[in-house]
Amino acid sequence: MTTNANEYNAGIMQKNGKDFADEFFAEENQVCKESNTVVLVLMKSDEIDAVVEEMLLKNGKAENPTMVVEDRSGYWWIKANGKIEIDVEEAAEMLGKRYSIYDFLVNVSSTIGRAYTLGEKFTITSELMGLDRKLTNV
Amino acid sequence: MALSTATKAATDALSVNRAPTTVGPQEVHKWMQSFNWDFKNNRTKYPTKYHMANDTKEQFKIIAKEYARMESVKDERQFGTLLDGMTRLNAGNRVHPRWGETMKVASNFLEVGEYNAIAAAAMLWDSASSAEQKNGYLAQVLDEIRHTHQCGFVNYYFAKHYHDPAGHNDARRSRAIGPLWKGMKRVFADGFISGDAVECSINLQLVGEACFTNPLIVAITEWAAANGDEVTPTVFLSIETDELRHMANGYQTVVSIANDPAAQKYMNSDLNNAFWTQQKYFTPVLGMLFEYGSKFKVEPWVKTWNRWVYEDWGGIWIGRLGKYGVQSPASLRDAKQDAYWAHHDLALLAYAMWPTGFFRLSLPDAEDMAWFEANYPGWYDHYGKIYEEWKALGCEDPASGFIPLQWMIDKGHDIYIDRVSQVPFCPSLAKCSGSLRVHELNGQKHSFSDEWGERMWLTEPERYECQSVFEQYAGRELSDVIVEGHGVRADGKTLIAQPHVRGDKLWTVDDLKRANCKFADPLDKF
């Protein structure tokens, strides 16, 4: 049994057959419920695998213990409460080559949440940028 | 010669603040914002009932130079992988035949969606008044052109390397006879480019891209890989690297209208209509492609739907916007019913009408049936027994002359086409949401399968005039229609569609003619 609610197969997803159906169709699950989480999908590549292993699974998880990283064959599925940040300058240093925020975006496959770049930092946040607060510029 | 006042002023300014020799792309992006202007009246060709504010942002701060470099790197990686390593590995031929057929549908249909999204993004570029938002839409136009090429290339690659190219090579020629084409054009074309510009954005970006591209373009890659297909993940995950900017465009469209009183009046109806329009097609079609078009299953489709549609899109997008007046779609309850059963309903009808397709379908085997029953209790008694009966009657064997469509007609299981979604349904066998409704307008009868589409039709009946395949070919014999609609292979007699994925016992036009199956329009009974 998983303990982190953000795990790929957490909660109802651990159930099967009739047990799954009972919860899926339960009256309280017939409306959308607000979630404070974000999801990031990174397409696997040489650079992204290193970012995941050396940054997200180390400092990233230490800074935000709600973060989970799942290997889904061709991509990494990452979910966390609040936000996920990736400092691409740090990634470039780790990779030992020129690597800009736009190089990083080459392999960012999907985002659920409000994603944006600021300088060399990529952020996906549950905040409503432009509504809750203004989007920042360099 | 004396310096002009302007030149002197510039020279003096530069002597105090030297011009930078390098500038970062995001500084350029910031500088470009000074080119924004305020419209008294937005002179767009594509008006909207909403007022779009002009201070919304492009969240990734893209400029042309970095955009072009980023996209060229994506293409170099994708085509390099496909044309080099994948070809040496014979990747196109390592795909399980069931999945190879699924990709005939997925890549051809997505190509049409991407093509229409070019026009949709261009329309929104014209409608928006914020310069940054226009910048985001303009990049999206270019992205959609790239995606159209990419989907075309998937078909080209499979046509070249996969053992059964028919259907990958020229699917569009059979579009008049394939019932799935028309529904696809409803969501991928009409939904994206017809009507109010912001409503189109809600269809395309807030629902189509932010919600359904995740199962359609991301989750599909897991199913592909599990079934031996490394071609699709290489291309589709690259397509999706542009979609996050499109989702942001959709979000900024919502931000741009958030303070408009019209949003309070129309937003929730438009969102519900868009959600229902998109889910009505994607929910059954994707579920059918994944579960019935694979040998190796990743997880039940209803779980994929629950994760990407209900929990993540519903919670992180719609749920979070609740405090700004955005409500959970009223049709969600019915959509959940569809997520559980509609793909089983559609798979049954698709198999019954298999000659009208441009792909091969296969019956669920014993292993599949056990999996379906374990994950969808009640599946076997409702669907499994019908498949077993069809198999016993020889539906796979061209010598049998048995077409399941004839069985449906003989048993009184009439197949209707929902006028709004163009999705086929059979009221006497369906376990999805809704029920049959029939209306008459100006002497023409219209069938509907649910109240949400019925409401849309009652509001704008002139918008939904597409003929169904049964109206179009009523009274015609099936093989004649297939030949006329280009449903045969290059030899002029073997059908493109087949009711199995084996290499032998392929059905021909003559086999189909022996079945003597005729199209009938069930609406004639009313």
What does the model show?
The complex is a heterodimer of chains A (138) and B (526). With 138 residues, chain A is an alpha+beta fold. Chain A is built from four helices and seven strands. The longest helix of chain A is centred in the middle third of the chain and has 18 residues. The model of chain A has no long low-confidence stretch (mean pLDDT 95). With 526 residues, chain B is mostly helical. Helices cover 59% and strands 3% of the residues of chain B. Chain B has 18 helices and four strands. In chain B, a hairpin with a 2-residue loop joins strand 3 and strand 4. Chain B starts with a helix and ends in an 11-residue tail after the last helix. The interface between A and B is large, with 54 and 73 residues.
Task: Give me the secondary-structure topology.
The complex is a heterodimer of chains A (138) and B (526).
Chain A: H1 17-24, E1 37-43, H2 46-63, E2 68-72, E3 75-81, E4 83-87, H3 88-95, H4 101-105, E5 108-112, E6 114-118, E7 121-125
Antiparallel strand pairs in A: 1-3, 1-5, 2-3, 4-7, 6-7
Chain B: H1 5-16, H2 25-32, H3 64-88, H4 97-127, H5 131-161, H6 179-193, H7 197-226, H8 231-257, H9 261-292, H10 301-319, H11 332-352, H12 366-375, H13 379-392, H14 404-410, E1 416-417, E2 424-425, E3 437-441, E4 444-448, H15 451-459, H16 469-473, H17 478-484, H18 509-515
Antiparallel strand pairs in B: 1-2, 3-4
